[in-house]
User: What shape does this take?
Amino acid sequence: MPAIATTSSLNDYPRLSISSYLEQLRITQPDSLPVSYKHKGKHHSYNIELAKTSCNYGNYRYWFLCPSCSKRTGVLYCAGTYVCRHCLSVPYGSQLQQPIDRLFSRADAIRQRLGWQSGVAHGIGERPKGMHQRTFNRILLEYQQLEQKLIGAHYATT
Assistant: This one.
């Protein structure tokens, strides 16, 4: 069973993503990236080392090197200093979901894929234009099975 929702997750930490620096990296091609920020009233300023890997069809992909463990990562999280998710040892938000919440999340994801209104109580909509009937039938079957699980879970708790 997942941890109680009061446990902190990665969503609770400010993020620093390599993708937000892509334009700057293309122009300057640095070996490190200077960061400057204020956290809990204390000013921090340091360089984060970068790694570069070759892509299959040319060019490069940039990565942060975690200041704590030197692992290659695309996102760092601020916990005083910016570190990778492994150094924080906190789960993703989805890992804290209870089983019933996972069912609702999956049902909403299916409804969104099919272009239907969010929420289980809205009934079944039409097949999206351009979607094969076979694909629609497969997704619809999964959705109906999810609905049955949700109904079963509702009656089990009342």
